[in-house]
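Justification of resources, computational component.

The compute hours requested in this renewal are based largely on the per-chain cost of generating structure records like the one below. Each record pairs the submitted sequence with a full structure-token output. That output is archived, and it is also reused by downstream analysis tasks.
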Amino acid sequence: MKLPTEKRGGVSDANIVASQGVITLDGFGPFGDGDHTINERASRRSYHDRIEMVTKIFSAFLEGRI
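The structure output for this chain reads:
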């Protein structure tokens, strides 16, 4: 699977590291809306999908495939 890359602002702690030129994986949280408000929501299904994707990425890394 090809993962998109982008530069953008936001509220992630990863922004601090990325601003120093360190390659940073970020944005693996669940899909939802209302970020950081009392109305914030997240899709239950997206948790499963994200965990599966991150597991595949780290497994490939540990196996030397990436």
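The first helix runs from residue 14 to 18. The longest strand covers residues 32-33.
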